[in-house]
Amino acid sequence: SENQRLFTNAVIRVQRLHQLAAKMINDFEDSLLPEERRQLSKIFPLSFCNSDYIEAPTGKDETQKSSMLKLLRISFRLIESWEYPSQTLSGTVSNSLIVGNPNQLTEKLADLKMGINVLIKGSLDGQPNIDDNDSLPLPFEDFYLTMGENNLRESFRLLACFKKDMHKVETYLRVANCRRSLDSNCTL
Amino acid sequence: MRNSGAVLILSFIAKLISQAAGVSAPGKPRLTSCRSPEKETFTCWWEPGDDGGLPTTYALYYHLENSETIYECPDYRTAGDNSCFFNKNDTSLWVNYNITVVATNALGKNISDPVEVDVAYIVQPNTPENVTAVVVDEDQGPFVRVSWEKPRTADTRSGWITLQYQLRVKQKKDKEWEEYDAGMQKYYNVFSLHPDKEFMVQVRCKPDHGFWSEWTQTTYVKMPDYIPRERSLWIMITIFSVFIVLILTWTLNVKRNSVKLCLLPPVPGPKIKGFDKQLLKSGKSEEVFNSLVIQGFPPTIDYDDLLVEYLEVYDNEEQELVLDSKDLSEDCMKSKSPSDCDSGRGSCDSRTLLLEKCMVGREGSRSDQHQYSQHGETSWASTESSECQGLEPGSPEFSDGRVKTWPVVFSSPQPHHHYQVEAVKPVYHSVPEILNHSSPHAMPANYQNLQHQDIPQQEGRFGKPACRHSQSYTHGLDTPAPGVSPSRSLEYVEVQRINPENMLLLRPLSDQNREPEGSDYAGEDYSKVKELTSNNILLLQRDTSYQCADGYSQAGQCTTQQPPHPCKPVIYQSHSGMPQEGMRVMGNGYVDTTVLMPSY
C-alpha cells in the first residue's frame, strides 16, 4: 500500500542519513592530530546533545511499548531539531563528503521530516493531532552556537550528536515499520 | 603530631617490609572490551594487573554521562571471571557509560583508565546457528546450498536489529577462503565447486552498525563426482565446425578445377614428336623414321669453312701488326656474323674486337704503328678454354655456316705463321678447344703481345670489360704495317693439328683462297712449339724461313729464336690456376697476360 511504501522509503532515507553521519564523524576523527585526539578524550561527557531533552525510549522494551504514533512523533521532532544546525554541520566536515550542494544535508532532513509528517497523518487516520507535549518550540536555534569557542570540541560534539540522533530515528522507524506490516523484512 | 609522625614512620617501615617480602599494591587493571550481543544487554571484560602477591578484588564502577551517580556493576558472575554483565534494566542506549575498574588488595588499590561506551555502537551478535550445506543436483550441474539461522538472541523480527550475513568456503588444502556476501537472507547457493572434493563452510553476521560476529563451526560438504557438462558450449562448437566444413566443401567444389591443378599438376606432354601413329599404321617405316628427323639437324659443317680463317701472328719484338685491310674488311664483314656462343663474351670476342678494330683501323692513322698496335691489342685472339664450348657443332648461331674463331693476329714481316695442327675435332672456333686437348697452347713464340699498358685503355675504348680470356692472347693488329701490302690484312689461321712434338700446326685460312698472297706470304708458315715451360707456357719457335719485312721493328724475327727470353711467354695456361706474378687474374681463373707483358 502507499503507506507501506512511504514507510519503507522513510526507513531507507534515515538509514542513509545515519550512514552519512557515521562517515562524517569518522572522517573528523581521522583528521585529528594526535594531540587533539588526546585533548578530546579528556573531555567528557562528549555529547551533551540538544536532543537530550526530547524524551525518547532508550531500550528495546521501552521502544516496543511505545505506540507507533509516539515513535513517529519522536522521530519527527528529532529530525526537525537538526534542520537548522545541519547548516553548521556542513561547515565542520570536509567538502569531500558533501559534494555539490552544501545544503544537501538540510534538504534531506527537510524531506524526511515531510515524509514522517505524512506518515503521522496517515497513522492518525483523521484524528486530530492532539499530542502537543512535544510541540513546544525547541530552544535549539542557538544551542550549538553558544557552546563556546572551542571549535574542536564543538565540532566533535555536533557530529556525535547528529550521528546518535540519526541512529535513534532509524531504530524507531524500523520498529514502527516492522510492527505495522508482518510481511516486511523484519521477519527475516 | 606524634601520632601522625608515628603513623608515617610506621607506614614507611611497612612499605619497606612489604617490599622486602615481595608484596605490593595491585597493578592497574585494564578494561579490554565491552560488547552487546543484541543491543539490549552488554558485558564488559577487564584484565587484571599485577596482583602484588596478595589476594586482590576487583570492582567495576560506572556512571552515565549526564549524571554523577556512580553505580557498581550489577553482575560479576554471569559473564565469567573478570567481567561485568549489564542486564536489560541497566542498559540504556544512546547514552555514554563511563566505566572504571578498581583493583584492591591489602596494601592498596589501583584504578584503571576510564572507558566511554555507547551501547548502541558496541553490538556484536552471536554467531549464526544451524548452518547446513546441501548438494543440489540440477541440470546445469550440482551446487551447494548453504542455509542457516539467525543467532537466537538477535531480535530481527521486531526490527530492533538488522543483520547481514557472510559465508566462506574452502577446501581443506586451500589456504585462502572464498567469501560470499549473503545480505540479509539466510541461505546462499555456491556454484562452481570442484567435483569429488570436500569443502568447509562457515557463516557469520553483522548488524547495521556494529561488529562482525565470530565464524560458526565448520560445516563439511562433499561434492559428488560429476562431469561438467557445458552442453551449450559444445553445441555451439559443433554447429560452428559443421558450418565451417560445409563452407570448405562448397568452396572446394567451386574451385574444383584449380584445386586439381594445384594438387595434381598436369604432366607435361612429350615435346618429342615421337612416332606418328598414322604413319605407323600405314606401315611405311621409312616415312615413320623420316618424320622424326628434323630438317637441318645436325647442321652440316663445311669444315673448311668453319675453321679459323687465318691466324695472324704478331711479332714479339716489334709489336707491330700486319694487317691486311682488304682481308680485314672481308673478315670484318664476315665477322659480323651472329653473336658469340655466349653473350657475355661478345665484348671480348675477338671477332668483335676485330670488327671494331677494323673500323678503327681504317680510321686511325696508319702511320703510327704504335697506334695500330694499340688497336691491335684489342683484338685479342684468345684461345679460350671453355667459354666457347657452345660453338660446338650444331650450334645454331652460325647460320652462315662459318664459324669464326678468334682471329689471331700476328704482326710480323712475314705476317702469317700458319700452324697446322692435328685437329682433334672441328676447330672452327676451337682454337681454345684444341688447346684444351693438348695442354700446350700453341702460340707463336714470337708472339707478342701486347702493349699491356695500353690494354686497359683499349678495353675501355671498345667498351669491353676485362677480358675473360685466360689463355693466350695474341694480339693482332689490323692496321697494315707500313711496307706491307695493304692487301695483307688479318688472316686467320687454322689450327690443323698438333703433332707429336707438341707443335701446334696452323694453317692459314682465308676466304678467298688458300694460296699465299703476296710475296711476303711465304707459303705455309709454321711456328713450332719450342717447349713448354714449367709455367705451362708454350714457347713457339720462329722459323727462319720468314722473310723479313723491312720496316718492322722486329729485330730478331728473322732469326730462329731459341730461347725463351726473346719470346716472351705469351700463353699462359690457366688450367693450373696459378697466376704468375704480376698476372692479373680475371674472372674464373683466366689470366690476363697483359699486365705481365713487359714493355719491349
TrEMBL record, chain A:
InterPro entries: 4_helix_cytokine-like_core (IPR009079), Somatotropin (IPR034975), Somatotropin/Prolactin (IPR001400), Somatotropin_CS (IPR018116). Coiled coil: none annotated. GO terms for molecular function: growth hormone activity; growth hormone receptor binding; metal ion binding. Pfam families: Hormone_1. One of its GO terms (cellular component) is extracellular space. Belongs to the somatotropin/prolactin family. This is Growth hormone. It comes from Carassius auratus.
Automatic annotation (TrEMBL), chain B:
The box 1 motif is required for JAK interaction and/or activation. Residues 1-22 form the signal peptide. It is found in: Membrane. Keywords: Disulfide bond, Glycoprotein, Membrane, Metal-binding, Receptor, Repeat, Signal, Transmembrane, Transmembrane helix, Zinc. One of its GO terms (molecular function) is cytokine binding. Residues 370-388 have a biased composition (Polar residues). It is a single-pass type I membrane protein. Residues 25-126, 127-226 form the Fibronectin type-III domain. The chain crosses the membrane at residues 233-252. This is a receptor for the anterior pituitary hormone prolactin. The keyword Disulfide bond applies. Pfam families: EpoR_lig-bind (PF09067). This is Prolactin receptor. SUPFAM superfamilies: Fibronectin type III (SSF49265). The keyword Transmembrane applies. It comes from Carassius auratus (Goldfish). One of its GO terms (cellular component) is external side of plasma membrane. Belongs to the type I cytokine receptor family. Type 1 subfamily. Residues 364-400 are annotated as: Disordered. InterPro entries: FN3_dom, FN3_sf, Growth/epo_recpt_lig-bind, Ig-like_fold, Long_hematopoietin_rcpt_CS, Type-I_Cytokine_Rcpt.
